[in-house]
Here is the input.
Amino acid sequence: MKITNAQRAEILVQALPYIQKYSGKTIVVKYGGNAMVNEELKQQVMGDIALLSQVGIRAVLVHGGGPEITSLLEKVGKKSEFVDGLRVTDGETMIYAQMALAGKVNKSLVNLLQSKGGKAMGISGMDGRLIQARVKDKKLGYVGEITSIDPTPILDLLEKGYTPVVSSLGCDTEGNVYNINADTAAAGIAGAIGAECLISMTNIAGILRDKDDPSTLIPVVDEQDAQRLREEGVIAGGMIPKVECCIDALRRGVSRVFILDGRLPHAILVEILTDEGAGTMFVKEKAQ
Here is the structure.
């Protein structure tokens, strides 16, 4: 579809109030799912984040990399094992997870973001003891539970105009490294830096009353709604921990949290810069 110059101008005018609303503020984007493995979508997401930076909206990108870890383990003949959706991470697996997350995935995202005109710096949760953690459950090995977050490395990078790209690893004072769930890391970081909002990119449209019917999308959810929807079985399975992370971010002072469908082109811009929205928004308490 060809867009005229007049239509381009109108689009910018309509986006202006949203740009003004978020200008100078910080958003955290948890990046994963289909948007991370689909090359075309990856290009669009990095372009969107670069654009936000250009209009004065500061972004922090927090990523996992489950598929990359699985692929690397397969190449060395090591089978992935999961318990309750979490990867069992023994010492050898942790080495490969660190290689995938802090190495290949992190640096490729930094490079791509810079190719789109962004100014990015890649770090992991180990750098500057950003994320300190402990063993979550002995049967899971080096899967970490966050004990504290020091936002100083991220704040320093934002102050210097960089977009921090953070891989979800943590450490403890003994030098152990932990694999941290990226949703959990993003929620903790968003709260620690006083982010205006947290955007979690997933492979579904948001919270659906009927999981097989996208038209049943629930656009706004507060804490009470989330509890009720879980009791009703609407929020179930792998969505439960994601929603728990959304609620955790709200309790840490984040104003709004969005679960977006990362399969949609330019989902971040649609959510941030339009009335339409692209997923489910979580708020502490809905306006009466």
The first strand starts at residue 26 and ends at 31. The chain has ten helices and 14 strands. The mean pLDDT is 90.
